[in-house]
Amino acid sequence: MLALLILVDLVTLLASASIWLALGGDAGVVGVAAGALLAFVAAMLPLIRHRDAEGERPLWPPLILVVIPLAILIVGLPAWGVWMYLDSRPVDMSHRFTLSSDRPLENGDTVVASAHTDDPQPRLTITFGLTQHNRADPLCTPGSKLTVTLPTGAGQDLPQTRAAGERFVLDLGEGKKEIKLSVRLTAEQHCALDLSVVSAHLDG
To answer: What angle, rounded to 10 degrees, do the helices at 27-49 and 2-22 form?
Structure first.
């Protein structure tokens, strides 16, 4: 029975450690937890060997060994559930993008929109806005379009062309913390437009 309890402890710890590491957890935390469990088992063995031969006194060390995996499950499973919920929520990137140029864009101009995130997700949804730089110029915003391209090797690097205000959905790939997009303007001649990021978020 005691051997079974110790086995349950070790299996529970290894399963928890595997999940933790798969989710990007710190390997040092796993090592410390494993060392603490092994030290605890080693400390319990002498007490177990010196229990009453008749077995009348409660065998409390094995009961403690039962508590350990239960505590891991009771604390770990809710924590894992909360982590999964938080991780599944979109990461707002609307105010994190910067443009390589703040001057007005004209037909054929290209700028780079870049951002950094410490919570990488594989998919980016982003919407750009265009506004008339000089209100005295003829209105040309409605007919203008943007072409967004990811750098080669960043994931889905095929160009996407949309009108301003429409969403671009881009496959960034896994674990990408540095995001760079090439944004090219197609507009009528002599149109000067200001580019901005209206909204952006990352999700899975």
So the answer is: 170
**Cα–Cα distance between 139 and 121 in angstroms, integer?**
38
Q: How many CA atoms lie within 13 A of 123 on its CB side?
A: 9
Name the 3-class secondary structure at 2. helix
Whether residue 168 contacts residue 162, with contact meaning beta carbons closer than 8 Å, is answered with: yes
Going by pLDDT thresholds of 50, 70 and 90, the confidence category of residue 79 is low
Contact, 29 vs 8, CB < 8 A? no
The CB density around residue 70, as the number of other CB atoms within 10 Å, is 11
Average pLDDT over residues 43-70: 56
Amino acid at 204: G
List Cα–Cα distances, 182 to 19, 62, 143, 152, in angstroms: 37, 62, 20, 11
C-alpha dihedral over 52, 58, 62, 67, to 10 degrees? Answer: -160
Residue 150: pLDDT band (50, 70, 90) is confident
What residues contact 52, with CB distance under 8 A and at least 6 apart?
Answer: none
Please choose, from the candidates 137, 130, 123, 122, the residue with its C-alpha nearest in 3D space to the C-alpha of residue 162. Answer: 130
| DSSP 8-state class, residue 187 | -
Taking alpha carbons only, the member of 15, 47, 76 closest to residue 7 is 15
